[in-house]
Amino acid sequence: MNTGAKLVVPCLAFHLLSVAAVAQPYAYVTEKHADSVTVIDTVTNSVVDTVDIGQSPSGVAVSPDGSLAYAVNASSHSNSVSVIDTSTNDVTATVRVGTNPLGVVVSPNGTRVYVTNAGANSVSVIDAATNAVATTIAVGHSPAGLAAAPDGGFIYVANSQTFATPAAGTVSVIDAAQNKVVATIAVGSNPFGVAVAPNGRFVYVTNSNSLDVPGPGTVSVIEVATNKPGLPIAVGGNPLGVAVTPDSRFAYVTNFSSNSVSIVDTMTQSVADTVQVGSGPLGIALTADGRFAYVANRQPFNVTAPGTVSVIDTATHGVVATIPVGENPTSIAIAAPVPSACVGDCDDDGKVSVDELIRGVDMALGTLAVNACAAFDQERDGVVSIAELITAVSNALSGCP
Fold first, then answer.
1. Domain stops at, among 335, 360, 381
2. Residues 279 and 352 in one domain
3. Pairwise CA distance, residues 205 & 239, whole Å
4. 237 and 195 fall within a common domain
């Protein structure tokens, strides 16, 4: 890395050493038996905060702009969603929903929050502007995970039927404009997790079988255009979580009883590799650039104990970090911190530092913590080199390759 070069642009020349990156993503992890959310800095892979919320939190999701995290409190004493301001990690609202809420997803435009109510066989639709339930939609039996289409037009809900014994499940397809179910798709036994490929072509559903009986499971792949599943993909024991890479090339599936993650090649719809992680992996999320997968290792369901988060390098398929967290981590979502609105001399010291200059350019281009290809710290080493700065600005101006 050349640390002594000079970058010259019209009307501006400055000497650049490597400087600290300005925006780093954070992971939010629900901890079922700690009644809290742990916040992880994904650059240092260290815990930086813990947020107390309601009882028995399960699902968690973040708004598209990263400013809010929504954590579901599944206990019958809570039946609510905690709204967390990610700039302060304070709970700013608590929204009552249906019985035994489990999963949560935010619409791509950030205006609606969808929550599955396993005990009420329904989905609550929260107006994000008012933090009030706008409507409730009846779905199948014991809904668990759910996901939104990239354009927000449809919401896909896994109806698990029962968690105790194997039973054929379904996926309810909700038309988001009409707030009603427009299709019901038969999938495998006890579906739990759902993810939609960013290209909008396929929906991936984990079929967990009975969580009381460890055993192999499958992933159903639904073609969005037809709402029909293809042949199921055999994965590890009791698959639960699923996430698809930003380029739609791979789906990562957590296998709860196998303590592993299956990496599914979406071109061949087959398992390309398997990665061993911690005990009882459940939730999974990918960084915006797709370079790392974060896995919440819950521990077995009958064990109350501190868990871990495994960090998988998606290029090498190796675990590059294991992060201790609180009791029984369940779900995980990754967001970037809310950027400062300040541009220029933000610290009022009478001059504009390189760090402040980069932030200003980044905000002006509209790329801060949004476009992975235009992010400055491409090497994720905590610093921004001249080459990275040039590449980021070039990509942003060209609309990203």
1. 335
2. no
3. 9
4. yes
Question: Residue type for 291, please?
Answer: R
**Are 282 and 240 spatial neighbours (Cβ–Cβ below 8 Å)?**
yes
Give one DSSP letter per residue of 189-222, joined into a string. Answer: ESEEEEEE-TTSSEEEEEE---TTS--EEEEEEE
Tens-digit pLDDT profile for residues 27-53: 999 998 889 999 999 999 999 999 999
Residues 184 and 285 in one domain: yes
Query: Is 1 among the domain residues?
Result: no
Q: Are residues 361 and 257 in the same domain?
A: no
As given in the structure block, the two tokens for residue 345 are 């001399």
Q: Are 363 and 71 in contact (CB under 8 A)?
A: no
- Residue 90 CA to residue 39 CA, distance in Å, equals 12
Q: Which of 306, 282, 314 is nearest to 296 (CA)?
A: 282
The sign of the dihedral angle between the CA atoms of 343, 348, 349, 355 is: negative
- Rounded CA separation 222/276 (Å): 27
Is residue 370 a part of any domain in this protein?
A: yes
Report residue 44 as tokens. 């240092």
Whole-angstrom CA distances from 11 to 5, 7, 14, 303 are 18, 12, 10, 63
Q: In what order do the strands lie in the sheet with 80-85?
A: 57-62, 68-73, 80-85, 90-96
Last residue of some domain: 301, 335, 369? 335
Q: Tell me the DSSP string of 11-69.
A: TEEEE---EE-S---EEEEEETTTTEEEEEETTTTEEEEEEE-SSSEEEEEE-TTSSEE
Contact in structure between 293 and 278 (CB atoms under 8 Å): no
Residue with tokens 């999320």: 285
Residue pLDDT, tens place only, 319-331: 999 999 988 999 9
| 60 and 189 share one domain | yes
Express each pLDDT in 114-128 by its tens digit: 999 999 999 999 999
pLDDT of 127-179, one tens digit each?
Answer: 999 999 999 999 999 999 999 999 999 999 999 876 555 567 999 999 999 99
Provide the β-strand partners of residue 154.
175
Tokens 């079922």 belong to residue:
32
| Domain hosting residue 350, numbered range | 6-21+344-398
Residue 321: helix, strand or coil by DSSP?
strand
Give the chain's domain count.
2
